[in-house]
Amino acid sequence: MGPGDVDYSLYLVTDSTSAILGDRDLVEVVEAALNGGVTICQYRDKVSDTATLVSTARKLHAVTQRYNIPLLINDRIDVALAIGCEGVHIGQDDLDLKTARKLLGKDAIIGVTVSTVEEAQKACRDGADYLGIGTMFATPTKTNTKSVIGTSGTQQILQAIADEGKNVRTVSIGGINSETVQRVLYQSAHPTKQLDGVAIVSAIMAAKDPKKAAEKLLSLVKTPPPFA
Ligand code: TZP
Ligand code: MG
């Protein structure tokens, strides 16, 4: 699977904090979510040490490979290289995209978080495969976000990407759940550039039944809303 073939419809971003994971096993929760139809997964772990990151990433990769979906690592190019997974997701304060590309190669999937038109234009020009556009809505999962941009800010960024003329894929992130997902997709859409999917942490990871939560979200992503 090359970077161009990726299905971004339902992008699971993991969380290892007790507030979201509780005492459940991360790999089991992720596998349940994959069973429910998650199409791409990012291992995001701000609490574990490097040795734990590598061993957990290996376990997650064994599972995502069985489901034939890509596994990306948040922030840590070294961890992605160590386990040989499909790519990384980097923020504005992480190792820069051009250096990440040099280290990981042209076949790696590299995504970048963007909150502004300027950040989106730069990431397009520097060769991002996809952009994580956000923060859509304020969320307790990430409180140090620079900006909450809503559907109108997201639409402006989609327009800028369309103007760049590059085939960069896009997902929205922040506060997306089964109540908000259709509004996010349809109110953000620009006439020539729509979101390819939604990235979700708590609405799947903290759900009592992550499989059911993923199933419901995927069906909402695939269904035009009543207000379209
Ligand atoms: N980046 C911007 S918001 C966010 C990240 C990683 C967290 C999204 O979490 P949730 O629980 O889906 O709102
Ligand atoms: Mg980061």
Automatic annotation (TrEMBL):
Molecular function in Gene Ontology: ATP binding; hydroxyethylthiazole kinase activity; magnesium ion binding; thiamine-phosphate diphosphorylase activity
Keyword list, A-Z: ATP-binding, Kinase, Magnesium, Metal-binding, Nucleotide-binding, Thiamine biosynthesis, Transferase
One of the GO BP terms on file: thiamine biosynthetic process
Keyword check for Magnesium: yes
Gene Ontology CC, one term: cytoplasm
Functional description taken from the UniProt entry: Condenses 4-methyl-5-(beta-hydroxyethyl)thiazole monophosphate (THZ-P) and 2-methyl-4-amino-5-hydroxymethyl pyrimidine pyrophosphate (HMP-PP) to form thiamine monophosphate (TMP).
Protein's name according to its UniProt entry: Thiamine phosphate synthase/TenI domain-containing protein
Organism: Amorphotheca resinae ATCC 22711
Positions spanned in the full protein: 1 to 228 of 523
